[in-house]
Amino acid sequence: EDDGHDGGWQYKMKEPKARYVVTGRLGTLLQVIPAMVIVLQAIILGVSTGTASESPAWAIADLAFNAFYFLEAACKICLVTLVGYLTGPEKFWNWLDAGCVLLALVDMTIMYFVQVDPGELQHVVLIRLVRLFRLARI
User: Fold this and answer.
1) How is residue 114 annotated by DSSP?
2) Contact, 60 vs 48, CB < 8 A?
3) Which helix (H) or strand (E) is 23 found in, with range?
4) Which residue among 1, 36, 76, 100 has its CA within the 20 to 30 Å range from the CA of 42?
């Protein structure tokens, strides 16, 4: 019989409507590590604003942060199912995270694969500003 407990790495159904909550050490890690990454990204964003933003290091950092956020969302979906991710107790934070991941994907697609006229860059800047809502999670 599985009691949902595995030495601190556990998950359990909180309500019968497929609303899962990740608890224990894994739940703590899924809260603390993303918060630390968000703070690190805010610091790097501040530093990159004051320096030459054409450096490939900033693009690599942006790609690494976006990959982390995508993997975070994917891990949560694997742990609590898609229904639990979209309807569970943390649904609003998950919706914010999913929106930020989608905006990051659009931003990266525009910046790296689509030729953008300089006059249309204001829309790209708007997308990047909206992504700053992730800071609200802290």
Assistant:
1) S
2) no
3) strand 19-23
4) 76
